[in-house]
Amino acid sequence: MSSGQNRQDISVGLEVDIVQKHHQRTNELTNGFVRRILTKSSTHPHGIKVQLETGEVGRVKHIYSED
What we know:
Oligomer: single chain
CATH architecture: Roll
Number of domains: 1
């Protein structure tokens, strides 16, 4: 697993863990597959913002290997 601070490490269909806005205090993770990448900049210190296939939006905390 790697962190989700670099946009180049994230692609549509990749399995990730995100933290949704309302879970930032507890750091509760939500697992899913990327539908859309919402952050336009190449990096973000809190994680790249994505939308999962389930429609949930949050910042990537962990990226699972494509293997």
